[in-house]
Design a protein that fits this description.
Shape: globular
Strand content: 15-25%
Oligomer: single chain
Number of helices: 7
Order of helices and strands: HHEHHEHHEEEEEEEEH
Largest sheet: 10 strands, antiparallel
Number of strands: 10
Helix content: 25-40%
């Protein structure tokens, strides 16, 4: 009864706001009409039983938009409808073809490494209207790196190329070996990496001295904040309680993870406490959930930013089926300025969709154990002159193969949005 009474009061409030507008609309200024529209939206916004804006549900993107604007679109914020149709046609044509020589020759190392990725990870959504998720800077690009970050990136790349230099990727001058040269096995293969980060410095190239050498997908650790979704995932289940918002991110192949956001004025955790996805603190600004995120771990890695990453997220429900997600990303040790990205998420059917909440990636998964055991077996075979030098092989479908989710490295089959 109380809930029904609240609904009647809400409807009465809407009528009070709308009725005068109908009588005096002709003489009303555009500013006044805008204020009235905002007031109506604020009144009709779905709300929880305790009065907060209701963000609950399963949400996902329904279009593909690149994070950064492709250089060929320069300062254009939007595609034309004709451009979107042509891009959809070209992408569908490329990723739906059979294996071709331009992508990988059958039976080669690259063919074996990429078989799973090419068949399972080529799902595509229609191209969205925007040319980039990034809306600031206006060029739609991540700002330049600081000198400190440039040096760290170059050191990491130098180490990776040293591990790759005796592989097929460098011998065939693939894009994944850009900046490198085909040479004998490097002595640096036995060095510790110059920097350990969440993503794995070696990124699974061809070394498996321990789990840390392997990429995040093999280690079931692909989650990162902010999360804009991937080629094959991007669902978020949002659940609210008084003083709390919980988000479950459905990641690749059962690598989902949970995030709890307290609605509080309490300060962040002490600087000595660091977490994989940072420490979130939420507050309501009208109908918008504003989340401040700090205290990232040095092992966290988002676009090269680590423990100094600072995010300000804004989650706003625009209507019955749309949430706008805006995030400002800042790290003065990584970028020369902050940058902002915007994404719209669409509400999914609660009956037709089901989210599995347990992290299934490691359950019954012997892949990583097999990689490590296989590396030891390959090293033994080489020592006994029964097999090739493992340093000349590549055991990653991404790092050495120029893997681009179904696209070729270059040419007509390359990603048209690259």
């Amino acid at each position: 009864m109380a809930q029904r009474w609240a609904e009647l009061v809400e409807m009465a409030a809407i009528l009070v706001l709308v009725s005068p507008a109908a009588c005096s609309k002709a003489g009303q200024s555009s500013t006044a009409r805008g204020q009235e529209t905002a007031a109506i939206q604020a009144t009709s916004m779905p709300r929880t039983l305790w009065g907060e804006p209701d963000l609950q549900g399963i949400w996902s993107r329904d279009v593909d938009i690149p994070l950064q604007r492709p250089a060929k679109y320069a300062d254009r914020e939007f595609f034309t409808e004709e451009e979107r149709a042509e891009l959809d046609r070209r992408i569908a044509d490329i990723v739906s073809r059979d294996t071709t020589e331009s992508r990988r020759a059958r039976g080669t190392e690259r063919d074996v490494n990429e078989e799973f990725s090419q068949t399972a990870w080529t799902t595509r959504l229609p191209i969205g209207k925007r040319t980039s998720l990034i809306v600031d800077p206006p060029d739609g690009r991540i700002p330049p790196l600081t000198p400190e970050a440039l040096k760290a990136r170059d050191n990491r790349r130098e180490f990776q190329l040293a591990l790759m230099q005796a592989t097929e990727a460098c011998r065939k001058r693939m894009r994944s070996c850009a900046g490198g040269t085909y040479r004998p096995v490097s002595a640096r293969r036995n060095e510790p990496p110059p920097l350990y980060v969440f993503g794995g410095i070696a990124n699974g190239i061809n070394r498996a001295d321990g789990p840390e050498d392997r990429g995040v997908a093999e280690r079931c650790l692909v989650a990162a904040v902010p999360d804009f979704g991937t080629v094959v995932s991007g669902f978020r289940r949002i659940v609210q309680a008084p003083g709390q918002v919980a988000m479950y991110y459905d990641g690749i192949v059962g690598t989902g993870w949970s995030r709890n956001i307290p609605i509080t004025t309490a300060p962040h955790l002490q600087p000595t406490v660091r977490q994989w996805w940072g420490d979130s603190r939420g507050r309501w600004d009208g109908n918008t959930l504003v989340v401040d995120v700090t205290n990232f771990s040095p092992k966290s890695d988002f676009q090269g930013a680590h423990e100094n990453l600072h995010l300000v997220e804004r989650w706003t429900r625009l209507g019955a089926d749309t949430i706008e997600y805006v995030v400002t990303v800042d790290d003065p040790t990584t970028w020369t300025r902050s940058w902002t990205a915007k994404q719209e998420l669409k509400k999914q059917d609660e009956v037709a969709n089901h989210v599995y909440y347990e992290p299934r990636c490691h359950e019954g998964n012997y892949g990583l154990v097999g990689v490590l055991a296989g590396a030891r077996a390959a090293e033994k075979a080489f020592a006994e002159r029964r097999g090739p030098d493992p340093a000349t092989l590549c055991s990653s479908f991404a790092a050495c193969g120029g893997f681009d989710f179904g696209f070729a490295d270059d040419g007509a089959d390359a990603n048209p949005l690259r």
